[in-house]
């Protein structure tokens, strides 16, 4: 796994919109915070893009991302927000120059597809808070965790226990993101092997029956059977039908993982809440789960470029 260089004061970080449109005013808090870290913020053309719900048409968004990927002076790229549209771009992106000067790519939600694509190519990336959420109440820990990772400061996560926790310890490469996107990329060039990995998942604005259907799909594809561990994050604003599905989101996940023995941590702060702690996709981690709490630590096993 290739890890991009650590950021330093004076480095350039780009903000692009890969999916849903956003305005410059909406990301002003992020620009101020990133600037306060000593970074020079470069605004992509997609931030002014407006094509129906997208931040410009596919051609604009591809061109914007490609420009930032190819520019060796840009040391990190953070997606302004999620929504929908990232998967439309992936097959049009050329990573040749990126490979010559890798940089951190940051995002979550719809950006899960790009994170998986990069991990499959052998590059570590960051599942973390995006500019659209900077400055909101409760986002402080998420923002600080992103800063610590970008500047290569020591970081680990201790979280409170949950009744559904399955105790145990596991070590493996960390992968994960939004469950809808995990399903979307199955069978595509962006998919990865889950065997021996520690998977983290989160979801928003889905019907409970559809969450169940997506877990069935992951299970039938063999994605859940060979994991070393599972981290279950935020399940935000999930909905039910007039005739109730009969299980909560966590109960659905518990049901579909009941026959496996690996440790499972529930209620980890990752996903569509302001407390969305940054996670390094592609890095080796050690997960220790107990009934009264869990610990996620990164394993030192690489040298940054």
Automatic annotation (TrEMBL):
Pfam families: Peptidase_S66, Peptidase_S66C. The keyword DNA-binding does not apply. Residues 13-128 form the LD-carboxypeptidase N-terminal domain. The active site is at 109 (nucleophile), 202 (charge relay system), 272 (charge relay system). One of its GO terms (biological process) is proteolysis. Keywords: Carboxypeptidase, Hydrolase, Protease, Serine protease. GO terms for molecular function: carboxypeptidase activity; serine-type peptidase activity. Gene3D superfamilies: Class I glutamine amidotransferase-like, LD-carboxypeptidase A C-terminal domain-like. Residues 171-287 form the LD-carboxypeptidase C-terminal domain. The keyword Hydrolase applies. Belongs to the peptidase S66 family. This is LD-carboxypeptidase.
